[in-house]
Write a structure and sequence with these properties.
Elements: H1 13-16, H2 19-23, H3 25-39, H4 48-67, H5 71-98, E1 110-117, E2 122-124, E3 127-139, E4 142-143, E5 149-155, E6 183-192, H6 205-212, E7 217-220, E8 230-234, H7 239-254, H8 261-269, H9 277-286, H10 296-314, H11 318-323, H12 326-344, H13 349-366, H14 373-387, H15 395-410, H16 412-417, H17 422-448, E9 450-452, H18 455-476, H19 482-502, E10 508-510, H20 516-530, H21 535-538, H22 542-550, E11 562-565, E12 574-577, E13 582-585, E14 590-592, E15 595-596, H23 597-609, E16 615-618, H24 623-626, H25 629-635, E17 640-643, H26 651-654, E18 657-659, E19 665-668, E20 671-677, E21 695-699, E22 704-707, H27 713-723, E23 741-743, H28 755-761, E24 765-768, H29 781-789, E25 793-796, H30 797-800, E26 803-806, E27 809-815, H31 816-819
Parallel strand pairs: 5-7, 13-16, 16-17, 17-18, 22-23, 23-24, 24-25
Antiparallel strand pairs: 1-3, 1-6, 2-3, 3-4, 3-5, 6-7, 6-8, 9-10, 11-12, 11-26, 12-13, 14-15, 19-20, 20-21, 21-22, 26-27
Helix pairs in contact: 3-5, 3-14, 4-5, 7-8, 8-18, 9-19, 10-12, 12-13, 13-14, 14-15, 15-17, 17-18, 17-20, 18-19, 20-22, 23-25
Length: about 850
């Protein structure tokens, strides 16, 4: 790291004399970080006028701080001024961006828009997704204002479905056009506000859209009654994105028969969507996912190689060296070429963050400033956060800056630079990787709940293989296409090695995600172990690792149970926990070939909570209930499967299912479970899948919950009859249907929740799992009216997010959207 012009100390007097002026910068830089961190915790934004007032007060404090003579007072005033300025300015920026939001009255309306394709389109099995920079919009011929950038899908075939209840798939079959960045199009679209799932420890889709500058998503209307989309011409407004698309298409065409095509496209143009989900699973299990897309490491390596080559060429010309020293030319040229590389890679948030960090360090070097490493590191952090405050909420920010801080603190870069001989350099590199792994393991557990145990070995080969062989071949392939074949061959060899590592029984481990303070203590403990300190001091880091390694979710009291209705869109998935057991009722929908509720929501949720399932209940075969089952069963090999799926169902090959039959009963930790439906003779006789939904009643003698899948009025009547002992088989079930909590049948469809059924169950609370603005219109208005007439509290996932209910605190439901509320989250009308 000394190559960056950053002394590691001890410092000679002539250097140390320059440090005192920058000590006052440390409180100011910390103020930038603190102010932004506090602003990101707001559930609602301050008014714009208050933000401007805060900026004014911050400038006033800054003026006083700069004129203060006492160092301590000056530092305090500067810290307070920068904290207030950061807080207020970020709030004002958020207010300005939020003012462009889509008006709720325009959601679901057919809008005529004209705009330019702003980024490289993303193709998938159901069509194409793209961004459109808006030029004009109208509704019924009247101009209107929309957000400046729209995220749209142009769907085809079975994916071309509208969000209106009566939408006909036959009307939406036009194939998407071959879109290119820079094209101007006129089309009819239907929009809605960005709305994602909100779950404990889950991915914040709405924050991601906010960071991308998206405030409206939707799809192109291509039905028989819609005006067809019209290509109006080509513009040169996005030439880099157009070039990226051309190169991506050439790679996929050249390597059409290679499994490595997607990875090559990701390394050259940053198209991470081109990598298959199965490959991502292997990369995560082996700890090399950071290498398989254009990341800070790739851009930094590119800048270093470019600077080295440019400096060598510059030194060959005495005329050039007289006008600009070769080191300065190499630094400027390397930065310029790295910026161009980042732009060509899509200018994603990690790329922007890396360029800002390199620019900050490079500027200090050009100015001849020699600061201690903590100040350099802190300045780079503050610059990145000042430009992109929401980076503080992204895992990549913490992983990259903690890794750089560890290298600074342990003097790893200098140690490696001073090593001579191939063997010494190899061991220095391994020590560097070991120190980073040691420090980042607690952070990875905090952020992801998972860490790779083979990551050190995998990265020892993958880092030089990808950065020094695969990436250069892939990039040079833009000029000489046959090099892509060599890059694909090199990727194939690496893939075999990684697949072998991923098959090891302990390739990766998953632990419950601890609170932030445990992760911070763990990172500090890992750093102590990595530093070159006496072993008694190093071992002091071990106790700091314990909270993050052994954190457990608070246990459910004996004799009680807890429900967590996950926010998974249009489908069902309810986690039931007792003191020592867990059951998952349904596994949510399948979103696409590469995405389902299992991979996207349930597996991360179960991992974060540290839950081991005893049983997975799949109420029936419909894909909105079984879509995530494969991912859940693969993650939970010990879980039994209870379901009404047919014997020929594909899931039977993964885990043979036991039929759910009315009368099945068991008890876990003083909590009773009973299957109420279907009957044994229903198998083979009932053809409608909803009618075969497994109905499950859970109770402890004081509180009860009823989970009924997609049963309809006919099945509700049968349950009611059997509960009254008047059915033909009364011995199967003659108890009460009464329950305190009801999972609303069939997501609130008009075909369910009959008045007689609700009167028999008498729930106080009802949970609806449905997608925001789903095409079925769930929950239906008349159904909600029946619940309201009986004073039943209804909590639906679009408004509530994940809904949690506990039998020992049975009066209410805890909504994830309230607990995790932030100002960028969508507020459903």
């Amino acid at each position: 790291m000394r190559a960056l012009g950053t002394p590691i100390g001890p410092y000679p007097p002539e250097v140390a004399s320059h440090f005192s002026p920058i000590r006052g910068l440390v409180p100011a830089l910390l103020g930038v970080l603190l102010g932004n961190a506090l602003q990101l915790q707001q559930a609602e934004l301050m008014p714009a006028d208050d933000c401007l007032l805060g900026i004014g007060l911050g400038l006033l404090l800054l003026a006083f701080g700069l004129r203060a003579h006492w160092p301590v007072l000056r530092w305090c005033l500067l810290a307070a001024a920068l904290t207030l300025l950061a807080f207020a300015s970020t709030g004002w920026r958020a207010q300005a961006f939020g003012s462009q939001a889509l008006a709720p009255a325009l959601e679901g309306r057919d809008l005529a828009v004209t705009g330019v394709v702003a980024a490289m389109p993303q193709h998938f099995e159901g069509g194409v997704r793209f961004w459109l920079d808006l030029e004009s919009a109208s509704l019924d011929g009247q101009p209107l204002r929309l957000p400046p950038r729209l995220a749209l899908g142009w769907y085809a075939g079975s994916w071309a479905r509208g969000d209106a209840p009566a939408e006909s798939m036959a009307e939406l079959q036009r194939q998407p056009a071959a879109l290119q960045a820079g094209e101007r199009w006129q089309m009819t679209v239907r929009l809605k506000a960005p709305h994602g799932t909100i779950n404990p420890h889950g991915f914040d889709y709405e924050l991601w859209q906010w960071v991308q500058g998206i405030q409206a998503t939707g799809y192109v209307r291509v039905g028989a009654r819609d005006a067809p989309p019209v290509r109006l011409g080509f513009t040169w407004r996005h030439p880099v994105q157009w070039a990226r698309g051309q190169v991506r298409d050439q790679i996929l065409l050249r390597l059409a028969d290679s499994e490595s095509a997607g990875l090559i496209a990701a390394l050259v143009v940053g198209d991470q969507a081109a990598i298959d989900r199965a490959d991502w699973d292997v990369f995560r299990a082996t700890g090399v996912a950071h290498l398989m897309s254009i990341s800070g490491l790739h851009i930094t390596m590119f800048a270093w190689v470019a600077a080295l080559a440019l400096g060598g060429l510059w030194r060959r010309s005495a005329w050039l060296c007289l006008r600009l020293p070769a080191p300065s030319a190499a630094l400027l040229g390397g930065m310029a070429l790295a910026t161009a590389y980042a732009l060509f890679s899509g200018w994603g948030v990690p790329a922007q963050r890396t360029i800002l960090m390199l620019a900050t360090v490079g500027t200090l070097r050009l100015l001849g400033v020699r600061w201690p490493w903590p100040q350099v590191w802190l300045l780079a952090c503050a610059v990145v956060v000042a430009v992109d405050p929401w980076a503080l909420l992204q895992a990549g920010f913490w992983l990259s800056f903690v890794a750089v801080g560890v290298l600074f603190a342990t003097d790893a870069g200098v140690s490696r630079a001073g090593s001579s001989g191939l063997k010494n350099r190899f061991w220095a590199l391994m020590r560097e990787q070991w120190m980073i792994t040691l420090a980042l393991t607690p952070l990875s557990l905090l952020l992801f709940g998972q860490v790779s145990l083979v990551g050190l070995l995998a990265n020892a080969l993958a880092i030089p293989w990808v950065t020094l062989l695969v990436t250069p071949l892939a990039m040079l392939g833009v000029l000489l296409h046959p090099l892509w074949d060599l890059a694909a061959l090199a990727v194939g060899l690496l893939a075999q090695f990684l697949h072998a590592l991923a098959q090891w029984p302990w390739a990766s481990i998953s632990l419950a995600q601890a609170p932030w303070w445990a992760g911070a203590a763990g990172v500090l403990g890992g750093l102590l172990l990595a530093l070159r300190l006496p072993w008694p001091l190093r071992l002091g880091g071990v106790p700091l690792l314990l909270p993050v390694l052994f954190w457990q979710l608070p246990a459910v009291p004996a004799g009680e149970f807890e429900l967590l209705a996950a926010d998974i869109g249009q489908g069902n998935a309810v986690l039931v926990r007792t003191a020592n057991h867990a059951l998952l009722y349904d596994a949510g929908p399948r979103y696409s070939r590469e995405s389902d509720a299992g991979h996207r929501v349930l597996v991360p949720l179960l991992r974060a909570l540290g839950v081991q399932l005893d049983t997975l209940v799949l109420s029936h075969r419909d894909s909105d209930h079984t879509g995530g089952a494969i991912a859940v069963l693969q993650m939970q090999p010990q879980a039994a499967l209870l379901s009404s799926i047919e014997d020929e169902h594909a899931l039977q090959a993964l885990r043979p299912a036991t039929r759910c039959v009315a009368g099945q009963r068991w008890q876990w930790d003083g909590v009773d479970f009973e299957v109420l439906h279907p009957l044994a003779h229903d198998y083979g006789n009932v053809r409608k899948t909803n009618a075969m939904s497994c109905a499950l009643r859970i109770g402890n003698g004081r509180q009860a919950a009823l989970l009924v899948g997609d049963i309809e009025r006919a099945q509700e009547a049968l349950l009611l009859a059997r509960s009254q002992g008047s059915a033909s088989e009364p011995d199967l079930f003659a108890g009460s249907l009464r329950a305190d909590v009801l999972l609303v049948p069939h997501h609130g469809s008009k075909s369910s929740s009959s008045a007689a059924f609700l009167d028999a169950v008498q729930p106080r609370l009802a949970l609806v799992q449905a997608g925001y603005r789903n095409r079925f219109g769930h929950p239906a208005g008349p159904v909600l009216l029946r619940y309201a007439e009986r004073s039943i509290g209804v909590f639906d996932t679009p408004h509530c997010g994940a809904a949690s209910w506990q039998s020992w605190q049975a009066d209410g439901v805890q909504c994830a959207r309230e607990v995790q509320k932030r100002y960028w989250h969508h507020v459903v009308p």
